[in-house]
Each structure stands twice: as C-alpha cells, then as structure tokens.
Amino acid sequence: MRAFVFDSYNHPLHEADVAEPTVGDHDVLIEVAAAGVNQLDEKIRLGEFKQILPYRVPLILGHDVAGTVIRTGRSVTGFHAGDAVYARPRDHRIGTFAERIAVHEADVALSPTTVSSVEAASLPLVALTAWQALVVEGAVQPGQKVLIHAGSGGVGTIAIQLAKHLGAFVATTASGRNADFLRELGADVVIDHRTEDFTQELSDYDLVLDSLGGENLDKSLRVLKRGGKVIGISGPPTPAFAKKAGLNPILRLAISGLSRKIRTRAAKAGVTYEFLLMQASGDQLRQIAELVDAKAIRPVVGRTFPFAQTPEALSSLASGGARGKTVVTIA
Fold first, then answer.
1. Alpha carbon of residue 278 to chain centroid
2. Which residues touch 128 (CB under 8 Å, ≥6 apart)?
3. Do residues 142 and 281 touch, judged by C-beta distance below 8 A?
4. How far is CA 224 from the centre of its chain?
5. Cβ contacts of residue 258 below 8 Å, gap of 6+?
6. On the CB side of 249, how many CA atoms lie within 13 Å of its CA?
C-alpha cells in the first residue's frame, strides 16, 4: 500500500510502497479517508522526542485518522466492517499517513455523525489533548478562569470550546485578526499577542494551557492565582511525567534538570507546573463525539491537501496562519 515515511531523523517525508498492516486479535483495520497533520509529526521527524518516544526508522508518520472499518481482529466485538470510525493510534503504533492502518480497539471510537470524515480526522489528537488538560488534569469547574494560548491553532480552537462548555471564563492569546472568530468559539477575552502583553491584562486565573513553551510558559505563571496550575504541552517534561512514562533513571535525571527552573519558579509563586503528553483513548473520543454531535464542539479545518501532497501538508505547519487543523484527504 502507499504510505508516507521518513528513513532517518531529519530526513524528508516521502512516499513509499509498504507492507499491509498486521491485524492483531484486538485490532481494527481502517481504510483511511482522511488524516490530521500535527506539529507532533514534525517534532518526531526532527528527532525532538526521540528520547521519550524512541521510534525505529523508517517510520510511517501520522497521528489522526478517520475512515471505515474493513475488518476486525477475532477478539473485537465493539466494531464491525463498515463502521465509520476515528482514532488517535497509541504511541509506537502511529502511521495514519497511509492507505490503511491497524489500530487497537481501545483507541478507536465511532465518528461523530454530524461532521465529515475530514472534520472527524482533524479532532483526535487535539481534542484528546484539550480533554486531558481541562477535564482530567485541570478538573475545570464552572466559574473558573482559564487561559488558552495560541487560540486559533489546532489545540486552541477545541480547548476554547471545551472550556466554555465546562462553564469557565475563557481568555486566549492569538493574532488580532482572529479575535472575532475566537469570540464566536466562546472566548470571553482575546489578547493580541503582537500588540498586547497578556501578563498586563490578565490575573487570578485558575488554569493556563500553554502550547508555546519557553518565555511564554514562564510568563504564564504570573497570571495564575495561588494554587493555580499551568499545563504545558510543549515541555519541558517533568519528573512526574518521566516516572509515569517508565523512563530509565538516567533519562529521569536529565528531565528533572530540564524542568527544574520552571518548577522552582512555579513553587515560589504558589502554583504548579505539569507537562502533558496526551494518551490515546477511545473512551474519551466517544465522549468528544457526543459533544460534537450536540454542537458543543465544532471541528475547525483550516487547510486540506490531497494524499500525494502529504509532505507539503506537513511543511505548511511551519508557516502558520491557518485556523485549526490541516488535514490530508485520501480518495
């Protein structure tokens, strides 16, 4: 079958003829209709995550899929041939930039019924990230104040809607030209990151979801009230994450050093910092699909590319500017 792979870290993505997926007892074989494109794909290609997500190369990239079940493993009972499904395959089983993929049944859910396969493919990774940050780790409650950075991006557009659904007062940072669009999604306050300093405009927030890292992460500590929390999805990883991930002691020590500065500053401010690397979950995708069908969350697709232009789709992320997600479609 056709797929897009890279042969070594830092090498370009290219089309290749690869073997058909092996379908295990608990797997669902999916004919791919569309695949979302994520910054994580590019970070993996560049080797930025190889210490915590070591992959063998050549590797088929792609973390989001929407498509149709072709067949199932002999132990699968919840899915049947012909089902329209979507998924974020678990780590070490990615590979949605392909004509077909076998995914563990626990990572799969029936697609929302009210959106297209392209829109469904835009959701899994970013919606799971938002869910795990706001619902699982953040435990956002009605009336709390939540700041979501990069509101017009893939995670941001979904996180704004989810936070509003949870009853939060929502602020976001973005380009000023996207202000009206983000208010339509549910943002109460939009800070133009080009002309305004969010630390001068916001205070006493309960939670910050940071996808930018670096100085932005450090500044985010200043807008939290005591007892607040910033959840970072760009890093640096923390010792708690390293322990949960089962990383070796040497790597745990290195990770502790990487995040010591931000953890120390957070502690002095009376707040906490957590690193989140989202996990695959079919159960959470089922709940997300219900919110989509109830019109509480709508997918935002900024760009689409045909399957043959998958490398261009990945490269386009570097230029930014698109609202929501970029999706590859497979005829």
1. 7
2. 88, 278, 279, 280, 281, 284, 285, 288
3. no
4. 23
5. 235, 236, 237
6. 0
Contact 291, 297 (CB under 8 A): yes
Q: Nearest-CA neighbor of 44 among 89, 11, 16?
A: 11
At how many degrees (to 10) do helices 282-293 and 124-131 cross? 100
Nearest to 141 by CA among 207, 227, 225: 207
Residue among 215, 220, 266 at smallest CA distance from 240: 266
Locate the DSSP E strands across 204-312. 205-210, 224-232, 272-275, 301-306
Which segments within 144-233 are labelled E, that is strand?
Answer: 145-148, 169-174, 189-192, 205-210, 224-232
Q: Please, which residues have CB within 8 angstroms of residue 294's CB and are 6 or more apart in sequence?
A: none
CA dist., res. 106 & res. 286, Å (int): 11
How far apart CA 37 and CA 51 sit, in angstroms, is 22
The pLDDT, as a whole number, for residue 159 is: 98
Percent of the chain with pLDDT over 90: 90
Structure tokens at 233: 């999805």
The phi, psi pair for 310, rounded to 5°, reads -55, -45
Cβ atoms of 35 and 86 within 8 Å: the answer is no
Query: Could you report the per-residue pLDDT of 86-145, keeping only the tens digit for each?
Result: 999 999 999 999 999 999 999 999 999 999 999 999 999 999 999 999 999 999 999 999
Helix (H) or strand (E) holding 179: helix 179-185
Structure tokens of 8? 């070594």
Side chain identity at 217, as an amino acid letter?
L
pLDDT in tens, 30-62: 999 999 999 999 999 999 988 888 899 999 999
Of 52-56, 199-203, 318-322, which one has max mean pLDDT?
Answer: 199-203
Looking at the chain, how many residues does it have?
Answer: 331
